[in-house]
Amino acid sequence: MRLPSPAKLNLFLHITGQREDGYHELQTLFQFIDLCDTLDFSLTQNNRITISPEIEHLPTKDNLIYKAAELLIPFKSDPTFGVDILLEKQLPMGGGIGGGSSNAATTLLALNSLWECHLSLERLAEMGVTLGADIPIFVMGFSAFAEGVGEKLQKVEPDTPYFLLLKPNCHVATGQIFADKYLTRDTPPIRISHALKLDGHNDCLDVVIKHNPEVNEAYLWLKNHGDAKLTGTGACLFLAFDNLRDAERVKSVTPQKWQAWVCRGCNTSPTHDVLNQWIEQNRV
Ligand SMILES: C[C@](O)(CO)[C@H](O)COP(=O)(O)OP(=O)(O)OC[C@H]1O[C@@H](n2ccc(N)nc2=O)[C@H](O)[C@@H]1O
Ligand SMILES: Nc1ncnc2c1ncn2[C@@H]1O[C@H](COP(=O)(O)OP(=O)(O)OP(=O)(O)O)[C@@H](O)[C@H]1O
């Protein structure tokens, strides 16, 4: 079973409060983009989970793919089931586009089928959020207005523009941004009916820029071309375009020191599109 594992953008990200356990309450608009890692799953009967190649500086046991697979062990229909996973990584790490969370969700979805666990998407999302706040959106697979820490999801259908995605050469640690005392945590909550009309902002931007001068430089550059935004806690920035040609034109003049991609927003996750085809073809 070969599945794409897409990235997400936070079209806006408002921090509306902080819970007693330190986690932040937020409101955000999630949309997928067609920029993906690929995960290839082979069912085995040796009761082992292997991932190759290893991600540099990340022991297998810390890989969110491994942790997600471990969560499903108690639900396997046959205790001998194992899996060999091949990972083709394209998404930059620490980019605010949720690559690790997406890989974890793709693993939950794939093994739920291969190991015949028969868990609902809601149950997989509940299990996933224990590993990362961004996992439920990838499990559910639809664009959403999200609240809570990102797990209370309401389906929405925003426009699907082209995006220029830009990755400054730095890695932002999500925990460091949320721990900063200058982060504003008091944006007034909005109603879902406003979510698609609003030109929302990202409350993390000022703090991310303060810690990462290179994000500032890329932000100022991208702003010359339109309404530049930060996704998640960065480092990636994006700009929306009505058409592919304009997006490609700005990409062609992007300073070479930054990675840049042109991609398209999508309101259903490519993982679900391919998984549903696989389920259809393998129905007995
Ligand atoms: C910024 C977003 O990407 C927006 O979609 C997510 O909220 C972050 O999700 P994530 O990368 O899956 O983050 P997690 O791995 O759950 O959290 C990393 C760390 O960030 C802090 N954290 C995260 C999410 C949140 N709503 N409040 C927080 O304070 C916590 O200290 C946590 O230990
Ligand atoms: N399969 C994985 N792919 C990428 N990162 C992983 C994976 N498993 C664990 N990680 C860890 O998670 C960290 C964050 O990676 P990720 O690509 O999800 O960042 P991000 O895009 O900033 O996430 P978010 O938007 O959810 O904050 C990495 O630095 C890495 O240590």
UniProtKB/TrEMBL annotation:
Its recorded reaction(s) are:
4-CDP-2-C-methyl-D-erythritol + ATP = 4-CDP-2-C-methyl-D-erythritol 2-phosphate + ADP + H(+)
Which PANTHER family does the UniProt entry name for this protein?
Answer: 4-DIPHOSPHOCYTIDYL-2-C-METHYL-D-ERYTHRITOL KINASE, CHLOROPLASTIC
Record keyword Manganese present: no
Query: Could you say which EC number(s) this protein's record lists?
Result: 2.7.1.148
What are the GHMP kinase C-terminal domain coordinates in residue numbering? 197-252
InterPro entries of this UniProt entry? Answer: GHMP_kinase_C_dom (IPR013750), GHMP_kinase_C_sf (IPR036554), GHMP_kinase_N_dom (IPR006204), IspE (IPR004424), Ribosomal_Su5_D2-typ_SF (IPR020568), Ribsml_uS5_D2-typ_fold_subgr (IPR014721)
Give the organism, scientific name. Answer: Marinomonas ushuaiensis DSM 15871
Residue numbers binding ATP: 92-102
Q: Set out the biological process GO terms recorded for this chain's protein.
A: isopentenyl diphosphate biosynthetic process, methylerythritol 4-phosphate pathway; terpenoid biosynthetic process
Instruction: Please report the stretch or stretches of sequence annotated as the GHMP kinase N-terminal domain.
Output: 63-141
Q: Name one Pfam family in it.
A: GHMP_kinases_N
Kindly provide the name given to this protein in its UniProt entry.
Answer: 4-diphosphocytidyl-2-C-methyl-D-erythritol kinase
Q: Describe its function.
A: Catalyzes the phosphorylation of the position 2 hydroxy group of 4-diphosphocytidyl-2C-methyl-D-erythritol.
Enzyme class of the recorded protein, top EC level: transferase
Q: Which residues form the active site?
A: 8, 134
Which UniProt key words apply to this protein?
Answer: ATP-binding, Isoprene biosynthesis, Kinase, Nucleotide-binding, Transferase
